[in-house]
Structures are given as structure tokens and as C-alpha cells.
Design brief:
Helix content is 3%, strand content 52%. The chain has one helix and 35 strands. It has one helix at residues 3-13, and strands at 17-22, 25-30, 35-42, 47-53, 56-61, 69-73, 79-82, 90-95, 101-105, 110-115, 120-126, 132-138, 141-146, 154-159, 164-170, 175-181, 184-189, 199-204, 209-215, 222-226, 229-234, 239-244, 249-252, 264-267, 273-277, 282-286, 292-297, 301-307, 325-327, 334-338, 345-349, 355-360, 366-370, 377-383, 386-392. The radius of gyration is 20 Å and the shape is globular.
Length: 395
């Protein structure tokens, strides 16, 4: 029996699953039974992206060199790991038509090709930047969003077969993610942090030209397509925005979001939209008519991946244990981390996955941290197996 056939059988056995980055854990939802398991595996520093591919879950840990890419076999949860680069700050992964996984190496300005079966690096495509993040693929072409963390506005186009850069498209300031719909590429651009100027550039792939810039406001980062609608996440601001991809019109923007959350977005096989809401400790499921059909309790949910579909069976409670929160958010000088355990390390990571501040918590469940030396931007606090994100604003 071929590996491909085995993969199909596994997927059929475990359809209706969701995997969520939950602090330092990989949480699992079985939508057939409604069961939520807070941890089926422990993740490394700064887990940033999760996908389900061919019977396995793949997690990219942005702040880890030895376990950059983790592979968990679904059901058994057996773990295989691959180290990628030194301080490359790998961001996301994407399955390609040739069977490989593309992994974006943000600080190395490259795309690393990985064999997902053997978990070995196959090749590396250099000169992709500045700072590639999320990607999309169509036919034999790979499109990488290169926002340069505020300094770039490019979408780099790579020929998968030859492993070469064939074009660079202009999108908009801080282009972070891309979604393809027919012959249009939708590039989510965060804009300059703090200026509430997020937007989506729509690029005609036949000409390479921008045909529309759809203003959303806020600081959107990630996006997915479902039922002709582009859903765009702004976990730092109002929540989730939406755009009609056929008419190129904004449905919900920062003044009128579709819903709160957006720390993670995914779409299942029936077009149901799954949304992580980190502030409220929820994963919510919406049907194709945008009706809320289920809410699961998950500690500090972030990136999410789904296989199969939501089957409409109610239930699903979980003892969430301790999760942390940060206030105020945004902050400028001092933050209070609530939910810490006495004597544990409380660390702040910057967007590159490097430790920006560290303290040992005291006897109280709250820990104060001085952030006056941190520059403006986005950060993550990690304590134990829980994490929370916050923003530092101009003082």
C-alpha cells in the first residue's frame, strides 16, 4: 500500500479534527464528540503556524533552531522534529504540488523545501524578501508575502520546479499574508503599526498590477477564503474583518468587525470558518451563512488547522487550567501578567522569537514587568505552557 493511500485512510479516520496552538501546547478538538484535549503535544519556543497535511500536523516554531519544524502523527501523536537554520525565525509552512513543504525563513530571506515524509531539508531558495512570512501556491507557482516587518511591500513569485525567483509584485506596506482567488491575489497589508491603516491589495495575476486597495483599518495580518469571502484577522485590534472577493467590496472593517478574536483562522472541507479568540479563550465555528454553530473553550488559542468538517455534534467542555493574560494592552511602560505560578519564569519574546525581557514570578498570581526599554511593536509573554500577546505603543 502506498504512503499516499495510507494518508488518505488516516484522514478519513480522523476527519472532524482541529489542532490549535495553545500557549506552549498543541490542543486538539474532536468535532464528532465535542471533546477538547488541552495538550496532545508540547511545542517549542514561539510556535507560530500549524497545518494538517497527509495525516500529520506540522508546527513551525519561530524561536527554536533545533525543533523548528515539528511533525505529530494524528491519532498516535508520535513526534518527529527538524532543525532549520540558526536564528532564521522560520514563520509558516505550506504543502506544494510536488509533495514538499515550503517553510518561510524570515530572517534568512529564504524559502526552505522540506520532505514531509523523511523530515529532511531538500533545498533552500535564497533571495526572497524582505522577511517572507505566509505563502500561497497555485499550480507551479509559490507566492511569498514579504512585508519586511513594516519596511517591505513585496510578493515574491517562485517557480516550484526550478526553485528560482521569477517575479516580484508590489503589494502594500507590511504585506504579511496572501490568498489566491481565481486570477486575483489578495495581499493582507498591516501598514505602519499604530496608524490604523490596514488594507488588502488586490493584484491581477495576469498583469501583476494592483487593481484595488480595500481599506480595513487596524493592523490585520492573516487571511483565509471561505465561500467567496476573504476573512482577515486583526488579533491586536477589533477582531476579524471580511471582504467580498467577487465584488471587491469591504463587508466588515475595523469600525464594524465580523467578530472578536482572529488569533487563528481556518476553513474546513464544508466551508465552515473556525476562529481562535485568544482574549476570550474560545475557538468558534461559523457555518457558510456565518451563523455561530459551536464554541469550544481552549486556553489562549492562536493559529489553528482543521481536517474534515464540523459535524454539528454539541458538547465539548474542558478544564482549562491556568492561562495568562496581559494588561494594559497596548502598554507603554509596565504590564501586569495575570495567571502566573509562583517561582516560574515569565518571558517576553519579540516578533523574531528572541527573549526581550525575563523575570521570575513571586508568590502572587500577578507579575509586573517593566517594558519601558522595549521598542514599539508586537510581543508575546510566555509563562509555563500559556502565552498572551500584547503591543507596545509610542510613549
Amino acid at each position: 500500500m502506498s504512503f499516499f493511500t495510507i494518508g488518505l485512510i488516516l484522514m478519513s479516520l480522523i476527519s472532524g479534527d482541529a489542532l490549535i496552538i495553545s500557549g506552549g501546547n498543541l490542543a486538539h478538538i474532536d468535532s464528532e464528540t465535542g471533546t477538547v484535549t488541552p495538550s496532545v503535544g508540547v511545542l517549542h519556543t514561539y510556535p507560530n503556524d500549524v497545518i494538517i497535511h497527509d495525516g500529520s500536523a506540522f508546527i513551525v516554531n519561530s524561536g527554536d533552531d533545533s525543533g523548528t519544524l515539528q511533525k505529530f502523527d494524528l491519532g498516535t501523536w508520535n513526534l518527529t522534529e527538524l532543525g532549520i537554520g540558526t536564528g532564521w525565525n522560520c514563520w509558516a509552512s505550506l504543502p506544494l504540488v510536488d509533495g514538499k513543504l515550503a517553510v518561510s525563513a524570515t530572517l534568512n530571506n529564504s524559502i526552505v523545501m522540506v520532505n514531509p515524509i523523511t523530515m529532511q531539508t531538500v533545498s533552500s531558495i535564497e533571495g526572497i524578501g524582505p522577511n517572507p512570512e505566509w505563502m500561497a501556491a497555485q499550480n507551479n507557482l509559490l507566492y511569498a508575502a514579504c512585508g519586511g516587518w513594516g519596511a517591505g511591500e513585496s510578493v515574491v513569485v517562485i517557480n516550484i520546479t526550478t526553485g528560482s525567483v521569477i517575479d516580484t509584485l508590489t503589494a502594500g506596506t507590511n504585506c504579511q499574508s496572501v490568498v489566491i482567488n481565481n486570477n486575483n491575489l489578495f495581499a493582507t497589508c498591516s501598514g505602519t503599526y499604530g496608524n490604523n491603516e490596514g488594507f488588502v491589495s488586490v493584484i491581477d495575476l495576469t498583469t501583476g498590477n494592483i487593481i484595488s486597495e480595500l481599506q480595513l483599518g487596524g493592523f490585520p495580518a492573516f487571511s483565509v477564503a471561505a465561500n467567496g469571502i476573504l476573512y482577515v484577522s486583526d488579533p491586536w485590534g477589533a477582531g476579524v474583518y471580511s471582504i467580498n472577493m467577487e465584488t471587491l467590496t469591504v463587508i466588515h472593517d475595523s469600525s464594524d468587525p465580523f467578530c472578536t478574536g482572529g488569533n487563528g483562522l481556518a476553513v474546513d472541507e464544508n466551508g465552515y470558518l473556525w476562529i481562535s479568540d485568544g482574549m476570550n479563550g474560545q475557538v468558534r465555528v461559523y457555518d457558510p451563512s456565518e451563523n455561530l454553530v459551536q464554541t469550544y473553550s481552549v486556553p489562549t488559542p492562536a493559529a489553528i488547522a482543521v481536517s474534515g468538517s464540523w459535524l454539528g455534534i454539541n458538547g465539548g467542555t474542558v478544564e482549562t487550567g491556568i492561562s495568562i493574560s496581559v494588561s494594559p494592552n497596548p502598554a507603554s511602560s509596565v504590564i501586569t501578567v495575570t495567571g502566573t505560578i509562583a517561582g516560574e519564569a515569565v518571558r517576553i519574546y519579540d516578533i523574531t522569537g528572541r527573549i526581550a525581557a525575563e523575570i521570575t514570578s513571586g508568590d502572587s498570581i500577578t507579575t509586573e514587568m517593566n517594558i519601558s526599554n522595549l521598542t514599539t511593536g508586537l510581543y508575546t509573554v510566555v509563562a509555563g505552557y500559556s502565552s498572551a500577546r500584547f503591543a507596545v505603543t509610542v510613549r
